[in-house]
């Protein structure tokens, strides 16, 4: 049987993970590698299971994206959209089923769906939240899905020819970036891209969270613009990009153009991050990386939602009291 090789690749979220804590990046990318095999040692097996856990925000966001992707697929097939209430009920049923599975089954076996082994919040005291905190999350997921039906994007999408829907979160897109002689696959999942009648390509990133600063997503979106230019031949000046906040009104800042200078600047930052990651890895092609070469974060704040804490004795310790911790974190900005 062919053996899988953990060769190096990059995505915006992996870069963010490395920036947050290189050691956590190691756990996520290398520590659990092979943990699915019968012969794996118990620690590797457990780290692998932890890499498969979701947290409540990623989990609800995943299901909203999944249902929106199916709705866009219907539009692309020129089929009728199901009523909003039907979709919201299906979403709620899925969330209830997976929540129950996560709470019940801590064996790490038989995931409720491919890639979902449970919720971090069900891992025990440090991660748990009160029952009252679940309901607003689920309500917001429903609001987000309903937001798609009321979005300014929907009428535009219904008006374009299906062949002009270029991306809908269905496939992983990859472009190669050369870094010091190594061809690094850069992966991205593009939520939605479509071409309107004047030839402009609109790239939309669905958000289920609260709107943040206008520049918050620039580096992620600039990578999409780079991909479209390089792999699909769309000039940067023919692209408009932006987040669409499905559960909030107003749902958008207007989609923005991006200059080639900004794309170049983000690519330069990406190269720097990739070089830093590669400097920790022994063999990026064969996937050899030693834990001790990946330093732990200096900020205990970053450890709060880290699933690997039990395997990380070197992690920074928070100050004695929570209020002191918060003060220290604020002072470090
Ligand atoms: S516990 Fe903290 S230091 Fe350790 S891997 Fe997680 S985030 Fe990094």
What does this structure look like?
- The protein folds into two domains: 13-156, no CATH class; 160-280, Trna Endonuclease, Chain: A, domain 1, CATH 3.40.1350.
- It has helices at residues 12-20, 22-31, 42-51, 56-76, 84-104, 131-150, 153-159, 218-232, 260-280, 322-331; strands spanning 10-11, 165-167, 173-179, 182-188, 192-195, 201-207, 239-245.
- The chain has a four-stranded mixed beta sheet with strand order 2-5-6-7. Strands 1-4-3 form a three-stranded mixed beta sheet.
- A hairpin with a 5-residue loop joins strand 5 (192-195) and strand 6.
- Helix 5 runs antiparallel to helix 6.
- It is an alpha/beta fold and 333 residues long.
- 43% of the residues lie in helices and 11% in strands.
- The structure holds iron/sulfur cluster.
- Iron/sulfur cluster binds next to helix 2.
């Amino acid at each position: 049987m062919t053996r899988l090789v953990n060769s190096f690749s990059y995505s915006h979220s992996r870069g963010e993970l490395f920036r947050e804590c290189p050691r956590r990046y190691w756990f996520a990318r290398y520590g659990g590698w092979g943990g699915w095999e019968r012969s794996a040692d118990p620690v590797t097996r457990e780290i692998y299971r932890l890499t498969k856990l979701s947290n409540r925000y990623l989990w609800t966001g995943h299901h909203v994206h999944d249902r929106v992707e199916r709705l866009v697929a219907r539009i692309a097939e020129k089929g009728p959209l199901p009523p909003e209430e039907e979709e919201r009920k299906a979403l709620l049923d899925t969330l209830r089923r997976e929540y129950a599975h996560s709470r019940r089954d801590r064996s790490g076996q038989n995931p409720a769906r491919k890639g979902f082994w449970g919720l971090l919040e069900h891992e025990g005291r440090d991660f748990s939240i009160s029952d009252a905190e679940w309901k607003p999350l689920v309500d917001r997921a429903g609001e987000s899905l309903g937001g798609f039906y009321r979005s300014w994007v929907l009428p535009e999408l219904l008006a374009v020819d299906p062949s002009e829907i270029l991306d809908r979160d269905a496939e992983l897109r990859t472009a190669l970036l050369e870094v010091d002689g190594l061809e690094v696959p850069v992966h991205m999942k593009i939520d939605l891209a479509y071409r309107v009648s004047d030839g402009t390509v609109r790239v939309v990133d669905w958000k289920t969270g609260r709107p943040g600063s206008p520049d918050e997503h620039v580096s992620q979106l600039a990578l999409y613009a780079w991909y479209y230019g390089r792999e699909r031949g769309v000039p940067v000046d023919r692209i408009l990009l932006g987040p669409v906040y499905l559960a909030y009104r107003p749902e958008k800042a207007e989609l923005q153009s991006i200059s080639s200078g900004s794309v170049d600047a983000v690519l330069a930052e990406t190269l720097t991050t990739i070089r830093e990651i590669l400097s920790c890895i022994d063999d990026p092609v064969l996937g050899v990386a030693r834990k001790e070469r990946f330093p732990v974060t200096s900020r205990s704040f970053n450890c709060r939602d880290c699933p690997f804490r039990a395997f990380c004795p070197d992690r920074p310790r928070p100050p004695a009291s929570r209020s002191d911790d918060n003060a220290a974190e604020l002072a470090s900005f």
